[in-house]
Request: fold
Amino acid sequence: MDKIKNVSIKRSMALTFIITICIIGMLSGVTVFLANQSQQEILKNRYLMIKSPDYKLDKEANEYIVDMDGSVVEWHGLSIGENIAYHMCYFAMIGLPIIYIIVGIGSAAAIYYRKKLKVPILHLQNGMKRIQDNDLDFSIEYSGNDELGKLCNSMEKMRKELRYNNKALWETLRQRELLNASVAHDLRTPITVLRGYIDFLEKNIPQDKLTEEMLMDTISSMQGAVLRLERYVECVRDVEKIESIEIKQERQDTVSLLKEMESNIHQLAGDKKIDFLADISFTSVNIDKSVLFRVLENLLQNAIRYMNEQIVVEVYEKQNILLISVKDDGKGFTEEDLRQATNMFYGKENGNEHFGIGLGVCRTLCEKHGGFLKIGNNKMSGAYVTAAFDISE
Reply:
């Protein structure tokens, strides 16, 4: 069965029908031979009977000569049953090969369909039906290496791509919902503050109850609320840019890239203690350097914010994936953080601000680069964030 699955449709069909023709030819030859032999055996039952023979002696030859004209001769032919059997042999010689051809071709077609075509066609039909029903949670598992096997593999790749695109679309819609919810949440507070100060000014300015100091304090507070609104608008604009960014991978020398990463890390570290470890065997990597450094800087800024004494940055490879792991010795992620920290605009409220886009941006950039972002807590203390980038051609 496995050998048949790995042979091309054209070749396997030719082999199937060649074998069928050989079998039909052998059976037809045996049938004709046996029918002919049967006819010869039947013909042996015919004979001549001479009654009251008239004969004379040939003295010269010393033998008797029968005079047929003067004798009574009876011809004993075949019986009705023998005649039927004799003619049935003709039918066998002509009819059975025709039957062999019909039955042989039909059987060969049925066996070929069942062994070669049935399984992949069922997989393809089922796959098309489920795709039409927008059900992409399945897989097409057919290991054949023929044309249908390649078609099944192509459909499986198409299913995975559709599933990935649907998941990405769903995630985009979900992020939009989060963005809308975040806008509603984060704009409410500064707008409420501004409305309160405006009402306060409307009531007190006509009555000259405000001193210059009170007026300046109110204006300063209103400016703070306006600044928070401006910062939030900038965050929303940055998110829009991230969603539309295009990845442009270029070949980078590994040694130069690692030196540049180490230099940037030390510049961001200031007086903080950051250890840099690298273990890469590739002489060069195919990566979008601007995306790589943007993710690295975001992860370092988060780690510096929550560290106690030390941060460890590790850069290593796994197959065609480049990984950057940033570990700190801070308090780590909470259960809620582990569930939602990589979502856009998730963040612990700090006063009236609720801007948490750092890890969300990193996750989006990693996924656009064919990788992923993983967060967790260290065994002893602190948290880690691992960013992965696909560096294959």
In short: The longest strand covers residues 310-318. Residues 147-204 form the longest helix (58 residues).
